[in-house]
Amino acid sequence: MALGSLVLLLSLLGVLGLGDPGPLEDVVIDRYYIPKICLREVQMGDFVRYHYNGTFKDGKKFDSSYDRGATVAGVVGVGRLITGMDRGLQGMCVNERRHLIVPPHLGYGSIGVAGLIPPDATLYFDVVMLDIWNKNDKLQITTLSKPEHCNRTVENSDFVRYHYNGTLLDGTPFDSSYSKDSTYDTYVGTGWLIKGMDQGLLGMCAGEKRSIIIPPFLAYGEKGYGTVIPPQASLVFSVLLVDFHNPKDGVFLEHLEVPESCKRRAVTGDFVRYHYNGTLMDGTVFDSSYSRNHTYNTYIGKGYIIPGMDQGLQGVCMGERRRVVIPPHLAYGENGAGDKIPGSAVLIFDVHVIDFHNPEDPVEIETVYRPEGCNVTTRNRDFVRYHYNCSLLDGTKLFSSHDYENPQEVTLGASKVIEGLNSGLLNMCAGERRVLIVPPHLGHGESGARGVPGSAVLRFEVELISMEEGVPEGYLFIWHGDPPENLYEQMDLNKDGQIPADEFSTFIKSQVAEGKGRLMPSSDPEKVIADMFRNQDRNQDGKITAEELKLKSDEDQEKIHEEL
Hints:
Blueprint: H1 2-18, E1 28-33, E2 47-55, E3 61-64, H2 65-68, E4 72-75, H3 83-89, E5 97-102, E6 123-133, E7 140-145, E8 159-168, E9 173-176, H4 177-180, E10 184-187, H5 195-200, E11 209-214, E12 235-245, E13 252-257, E14 271-280, E15 285-288, E16 296-299, H6 307-312, E17 321-326, E18 347-357, E19 364-369, E20 383-392, E21 397-400, E22 408-411, H7 419-424, E23 433-438, E24 458-468, E25 477-479, H8 487-491, E26 499-500, H9 501-513, E27 517-519, H10 525-536, E28 543-544, H11 552-556
Antiparallel strand pairs: 1-5, 2-3, 2-4, 2-6, 5-6, 7-11, 8-9, 8-10, 8-12, 11-12, 13-17, 14-15, 14-16, 14-18, 17-18, 19-23, 20-21, 20-22, 20-24, 23-24, 25-27, 26-28
């Protein structure tokens, strides 16, 4: 049809160039603009929308759709248009422009239109085609891009959030969510959208882009919409589905990495330390604990965090990585949060659990090696030497005694180490090795310590090197039996009636050497003896008198041990 018209046009133009050929037998068509892409041509029975200017041969205008501010809509080839226009529109593409010359017998003939078109008038039309559709048309969906992974697609009753650009078939824009800087949020399949959009969104993945061409009878039909969508207009939507969910959705879990050994799983009431990246379904990051270089620390199951995360962390193992997908009714709902989480947004958390504990947890003790014939074990007040490696439960090394020349030394029960480590060192034999898991309330607590994060569970590998039997709290020296009779006289070695520091030190050392008593274990026994002397030299004159020398049993009225 188009080729025949073009041949007819060329022959007529050639004749016109030679002179007036006389009356035209058919419509003269000049396709002076043809779009590069023509997806469809007008055929008999199609509905069309177009603009035109109508003039006579002398250029005088007799009609114009532009002047009326409204396009012309009609059906081609059913006699509703003048025959010349019916023929001249056939084969047109959207956005094509044509000059039509319609002879009188294909226009208004010998009668004309009273007061407007005289009899036997040749009519000149400048036409631009804006829209073509047919009552048998269906929705046209073209997938522009689609994510590699798509675990779920849109179904009826789902709530969707999407961006769109809306144009008429000729490319004229009429609306865009991007210009509002907000997604369009609605339910699918419940009548809240035009029928074509309801159908066009079905089966989409989050992150998918589609072009959806909607014929008028699935859009706004004969009435159009306001001033932006004319009657009988086909609509073209370029859609990006940002996210979707169903009001019946629960939390969706994807276990990305679960440690082979999982002795314990988190339950309600546990305190969890975890890192996370938080994204929307389109991949937009809204928050990350990594960016702050600090774990997120909280109780689970107690309402301190959004319900979806409360549920999503149940049953995690230490060291586990899991993805938690949370629908908005279990997150921040219709209002969203701040300027980074939109209303009705589905949230995706990629979580790495560092550790967790319960406030009632004791120290966990695993004996790795215990020597045979272990009869003597450590007690509070004993002086011990031990090696240790300290780390977080994710393997991060914190401290090690092996980094120093000598083992660690401490008197147990003297509040010199954290409570959990002290407990873990009790009842050990020399040479024994243990692994200790110390919860934070028996470690460094919520505040942490230098190099130790707040609320961190600590792992110690300890090896007891040696131990010395201690003395009761508050004592610096005890006798293994009764103290000597006439203690002051025996201590006054030169019998001058006073005991200076050197005599006091010589006497105590002799008692220890003879196995009659023992000092409080220490890496510096001289300091212990000096402290003992200072306690007895009550007036601090550098010597002890008989009146000053008193046993601790006399002072405390304790009969368990006798001690200076």
